[in-house]
Amino acid sequence: MKTSIVQVISAAFILLWVYTAGSKLADFQSYKQEMSLQVFSPDFAAVLLYAIPFLEILCATLLLIKKTNKLGLVLSLLLMLVFTGYILLIISGYFPKTPCSCGGVIKAMGWKAHLVFNIFFLSASILSLFMTLKPEVRDKD
């Protein structure tokens, strides 16, 4: 049962990362334009332009391979923490402008819906890591 839950969570993340990276790369000019409107410095935005889709594809790849699945879950957790933190800053009004450079239908979500979506995946990554890192409890007969 535990393995099945981790596999479902891993599969959901694979779909998420492939979809979001693919959406960004499929319409790269639009993604590039949205990244240039971010609050970050132009140099940092230029790094993020390539780093984000790369990390999303890397996560999906790591999750696909049994030996690197835990690493993929950890990287997924870290990415979701960063993305969720960014959304929390947006919702709190920290940034003067808030363009969304997300991919596909995720871009169409409002910020509060996006936060709920991210918290769901953040929770799923924590659950899966807890399940994979927790030692098996065995009967002592």
UniProtKB/TrEMBL annotation:
Alphabetically list the UniProt keywords.
Membrane, Transmembrane, Transmembrane helix
Q: Which residues form the Methylamine utilisation protein MauE domain?
A: 4-130
* Residues passing through the membrane, by range: 44-65, 72-95, 115-133
Mind telling me which GO cellular component terms the entry cites?
Answer: membrane
- Return the InterPro entries for the record: Methylamine_util_MauE (IPR009908)
A GO biological-process term: methylamine metabolic process
Q: What is its main location?
A: membrane
Q: How does it sit in the membrane?
A: Multi-pass membrane protein
Subcellular location per UniProt equals:
Membrane
Entry protein name: DoxX-like family protein
| Source organism per UniProt | Pedobacter terrae
